[in-house]
């Protein structure tokens, strides 16, 4: 298996990319978006951020509500069909759709990922 991206400095990655554990506390349909995504509200303990996440192929809203996710929280805000997405919920291609990355067991909200 080959990887396409150039090697980066690990210390620089950890300085630049801030990933945190959050809990999905609200899931809404988002028919206005061009792609099939949900509007999520993610609780990080000391604040809540919103995200447009392409998890509709694998998850029903009730499956996501209450689950812990790994999110990038320092990418800035992206506006999608009038909705401000403030964090990026991470995921992988599960073959039948995007599967969100989560923790092995519950950890405190806002815990930083290293």
UniProtKB/TrEMBL annotation:
Give all residue intervals belonging to the TRNA-binding domain: 13-114
Task: Say if the entry is tagged with keyword Membrane.
Answer: no
Entry annotated with the keyword Mitochondrion: no
Keyword annotations from UniProtKB, A to Z: RNA-binding, tRNA-binding
Task: Note the InterPro entries from the entry.
Answer: NA-bd_OB-fold (IPR012340), tRNA-bd_dom (IPR002547), Tyrosine-tRNA_ligase_regulator (IPR051270)
PANTHER family in the record = TRNA-AMINOACYLATION COFACTOR ARC1 FAMILY MEMBER (PTHR11586), TRNA-BINDING DOMAIN-CONTAINING PROTEIN (PTHR11586:SF37)
Name assigned to this protein: tRNA-binding protein
Which species is this UniProt entry from?
A: Haloarcula onubensis
């Amino acid at each position: 298996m080959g990887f396409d991206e150039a090697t980066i400095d690990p210390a620089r990655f950890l300085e630049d990319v801030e990933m945190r554990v959050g809990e999905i506390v609200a899931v809404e349909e988002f028919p206005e978006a061009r792609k099939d995504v949900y509007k999520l509200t993610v609780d990080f303990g000391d604040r809540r951020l919103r995200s447009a996440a392409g998890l509709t192929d694998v998850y029903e809203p009730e499956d996501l509500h209450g689950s812990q996710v790994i999110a990038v929280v320092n990418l800035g805000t992206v506006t999608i069909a009038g909705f401000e997405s403030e964090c990026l919920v991470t995921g992988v291609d599960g073959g039948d759709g995007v599967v969100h990355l989560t923790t092995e067991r519950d950890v405190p909200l806002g815990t930083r990922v290293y």
